[in-house]
Amino acid sequence: MNDRPHDVEELGPIDYLVISFPGSRLTGEGLPLLIDLVDRGIIRVLDLTFLRKDADGTVGVLQIADLTGDGRLDLAVFEGASSGLLGDTDLAEAGALLEPGDSAAVLLYENRWAAPLATALRRADARMIAGGRIPVQDLVEVLDAIESPGSSS
Questions:
Q1: Which among 23, 20, 101, 105 is positioned nearest to 57, based on CA atoms?
Q2: Which of 26, 54, 72, 110 lies 20 to 30 Å (CA to CA) from residue 34?
Q3: CA gap 113, 35 in Å, rounded
Q4: Longest alpha-carbon distance in the chain
Q5: Beta-bridge mates of residue 48
Q6: E-strand spans in 12-114?
Q7: How many other CB atoms are found less than 10 A from the CB of residue 99?
């Protein structure tokens, strides 16, 4: 799954996610959806790393092979998904977000669907000067406030 981009000028926007699994319960339910996004060319997985925080607060990197023994979670398809863009500092910051006993997936991916637009904008010398993401819970709260009688928003 790791086909390193050859021409940086043709890359789509790069995003990352740190997904916590409380109690280290990885069910694999989202895995087929992630694979589908890759198969359809919507995203390209650049890095996928799993972390676990022990009871004493020590954070360690889990090898993908360590996670496939129960027969329910087949991550072997992502073996070797490592561009080298995620460094030890990035993983330490992600690990600091975990509670003891929890695990996390750190995913770095290219938004391939946006690559043609990003390439055209770069050719036009356009520059992204801001970006972000609105958490779903924030959106729900705003929509609830809008729908409430007497809302001042």
A1: 101
A2: 54
A3: 15
A4: 55
A5: 107
A6: 14-21, 43-53, 59-62, 103-111
A7: 10
The residue among 52, 62, 50 whose CA lies nearest residue 22 is 52
CB 75 within 8 A of CB 107: no
Taking residues 44-51, report their average pLDDT.
90
Over residues 60-77, the pLDDT tens digits come to 988 765 554 454 555 656
User: In the block, which residue shows the tokens 């694999």?
Assistant: 28
> Is 51 in contact with 98 (CB distance < 8 Å)?
yes
Residue whose structure tokens are 């020590």: 58
Beta strands, E only, 25-146: 43-53, 59-62, 103-111
Query: Distance (Å, rounded) from C-alpha 100 to C-alpha 53?
Result: 5
Nearby residues of 67 by Cβ (< 8 Å), 6 or more positions away:
26, 50, 73, 75
* Stated pTM of the model: 0.77
Token output for 140: 């729900």
3-class secondary-structure state, position 140: helix
